[in-house]
Every structure is written in C-alpha cells, then in structure tokens.
Amino acid sequence: MKWYRIKALLLKYWYLTKNRLDRLFDVIYWPLIDVFIWGFAIYFIESISEVSVLSMIMGGIILWVFIWRACQDLVVYVLEDFWSRNVYNLFTSPITSMELVASLMIFSLLRAAATFLIMWILTAVVYAFDITTLGLLPFVVSIPVLVLFGWVLGIFITALIFIFGKSIQVFAWSIVWVIQPFSCVFYPLAALPEWAQSIAILFPTTHVFENLRQSITTGTMNWPSIGYAYVVSVILLVLVSLFFQYALERAKKTGLLCRYE
C-alpha cells in the first residue's frame, strides 16, 4: 500500500463531506436527534423509577456512534462512486482494493470521533452528563471492538454491493439497526427471550455493552468476555476482507463496475 494514494482518497472524501450537506448531516443532525429523543425518554423513566439509568443508556447511545459511523460511512462513500458513475474510473487508477478499504476505515473513524465529540459536548450541556465519569477503562476497552465490528459490517455490505449492485444499498443504512436489538445496548442480556440470548451472545457488541454496565455497577470487567469480543472481531475482519477481494474480482469479471447498477 502507498500512503500518498490513501491520502489522496482521504482528501477526496473530505471534499465530498464538506461540500455535501447530507454528508454533514450524518455527523451532526441524526446524533442530535438521538440525544434529544433518548435523553427526554431517560428523564421520564427516572421520574417513575428509583433506578438511575442515565449513565447506562446515554453511555450506550454515545458509544454506539462508533459502530454506526464505522459501518455506514465505509459503505456510503463507496456508493458515492456508484451514484456519480465514478467507480469505473476509480478502479482503472493504480489504487488497490486494500488502499481503498484502508482510506475508508480511516475516514469513517475520523467521522465517528467527530460525532462522538459532538454528542459528548451536547449531553454535558443539556443533561449535565459527562461520559468520562464512567471511567477511562470502559472507553479504552470498548471503542476498538465497536470500530472493528463496524468495519466488519461495512466491508461485508460493500462486498455484497459489488456482487448484487445498488439494489441492496438499503443495508448501508439499516444493518447496524438490525443488530442493535441483539447487542443489548440499552438492556442486559438476561432481559432478552431465551432464543434471542443465544443469538445475542455471539455478537462482540453484546459483550462490550454487558461489560459497560458491569463496570458502572461494580467497577470490574469480565476479561474473558472482552477477549472473546476482540478475537471474534479480528477473525471476522480478516474473513470479510477476503470476501471483499473476491467480490471485487467478481465485479470486474461480470462488468458491474461499468454498469453502475
């Protein structure tokens, strides 16, 4: 991989972002909506309950942006090349598939960090909730897993787009919300029905948010659970990267890169 080609792609995504209102909305508008809707709901729940849920739910909402942005941005910026009929030009340049994926990973991480910062400031101002009070350890442990798993989902959906075309682009926006109910972001794993628990326990995200709640209530972490989340995320990242390579080569052979479908 050549850094100057990755840097060129990052500059392209930067110009796309700053000149497109919808790309800026991704970073600012929807996170603001989330904070207000969930924040007011949390205040109502706390008014009728003796249990403080602000830290658990608001912490989950803020940390969720890392998997959300890591997944969605990775796919959407590939779709931008389909929509602008530029995907053929992209792959006739010297840029390799790994350089493309690396640039998308870096840019999605930067946008995730920007969204996180906005939500951190907003919740501190509006609800007097400072997410850093949850402790440094949950951040250090949780964020890399969420980003890795977000990239896994993003690369997987991108590979499917190179196989089936834009007809499945709806997954770019919806896949993280499909897995969110099984990730136990706002409730413990034990609250799910038994059949759902057997699915949820497989997701690395479930282990992240279970440990976040445990850290808040007991100040301890379940390290084997965290280790499972890291190992599964890394293995899946390797597998979907190979799948992406296969999908791209298939797209070149079938001519999908020229049809822009």
Question: Could you write a compact summary of the structure shown?
Answer:
With 261 residues, this protein is mostly helical. Helix content is 79%, strand content 0%.
Description of the structure:
It contains 11 helices and no strands. It has helices spanning 3-18, 21-47, 54-83, 87-92, 97-127, 136-164, 170-179, 194-200, 204-218, 223-254, 256-259.
Q: What structural keywords apply?
A:
261 residues, 11 helices, globular
What's the SSE blueprint?
Elements: H1 3-18, H2 21-47, H3 54-83, H4 87-92, H5 97-127, H6 136-164, H7 170-179, H8 194-200, H9 204-218, H10 223-254, H11 256-259
- Which descriptor suits the 3D outline? globular
**Largest sheet features:** none
What's the number of helices? 11
**Proportion of residues in helical segments:** over 70%
The poorly predicted ranges are none
Q: How many strands appear in the DSSP assignment?
A: 0
Oligomeric state of the chains?
single chain
Q: Secondary-structure element sequence?
A: HHHHHHHHHHH
The overall average pLDDT, rounded, is 88
Structural class: mainly alpha
Gyration radius from CA atoms, angstroms: 19 Å
Distance between the termini: 28 Å
* Range of strand content: under 5%
